[in-house]
């Protein structure tokens, strides 16, 4: 694979959590193709991590892998602190996430599942930013991207907790971006629509404007290179979800039902 020379807009070292999944794996390849030289990849699936390391190693990328459960807060923070000290990633993408739904008969979400979802989607995402930030502040450089979702605009009846978790990530990321803006650290919120991945396939309900993961990864990399505060796509779905968020919830609920959401 021809690899372009490194440029200012291509981070040399990128750390990606949830790299074993659809979007995370596509991001790893997107940065490898763009010219990043070191990729630090996390997930739980060790076989998949080994596979990625081998394939990316074959095209000349230095790959560091870590299999850990991000719900193990102290292990996650210790590993991120170590990586920040030894590798100083230019870009950290907090991408690991899970989804749950209310079930085929709308029986609702189980409390244990909601607990797990908030541990991964909210606490681990915030822990990732919190653990990586001090080293970036100290060297007055670096970038941290948080994976939210278009579901953050307006809660979907199929996925109430997931929507709420992604709204929390969006609001946290926006606030933190402004907090550290003067310190040389860039923070960005990513809000994808439907993107092909196991999580997406497992989700009930309509999936309009479904994108391939490599297309999403390209748009994310380009948005991060421009330091856009919010990277949301695809445009029509983003606009529709944004408008659902600003109209009265009884009206948006009626529209969602008409569109096939329960
Ligand atoms: N696909 C979409 O339509 C869509 C839309 C909007 C936002 N997003 C967001 O994009 C991100 C990536 O999702 P995806 O679509 O690529 O889903 P995916 O293919 O299911 O990947 C999820 C990733 O998260 C990791 N993960 C989950 N729980 C973990 C845990 N407890 N500890 C460590 N790693 C864990 C998984 O690792 P293992 O498999 O190794 O356990 C996997 O790498 C998520 O934050 C998701 O909410 C996705």
Question: Can you describe this structure in just a few lines?
Answer:
With 262 residues, this protein is α/β, with parallel strands linked by helices. Helix content is 50%, strand content 14%. The chain has a seven-stranded parallel β-sheet, with helices on both faces.
Explain the overall architecture.
This protein has 262 residues and is of the alpha/beta class. The chain is 50% helix and 14% strand. Helix 4 runs parallel beside helix 5. 42% of the residues are buried. The N terminus is likely disordered. The protein binds NADP nicotinamide-adenine-dinucleotide phosphate. The site of NADP nicotinamide-adenine-dinucleotide phosphate has 26 residues, from helix 1 and helix 6.
End-to-end Cα distance, whole Å, is 46 Å
Helical content, roughly? Answer: 40-55%
- Ligands bound to this protein structure: NADP nicotinamide-adenine-dinucleotide phosphate
Relative strand content: 5-15%
Mean pLDDT: 95
Q: Major beta sheet, specifics?
A: 7 strands, parallel
Using only CA atoms, what is the Rg? 18 Å
Uncertain spans: 2-6
Outline, from the CA principal axes? Answer: globular
Give the ordered list of helices and strands.
EHEHEHEHEHEHHEHH
* Total strand segments: 7
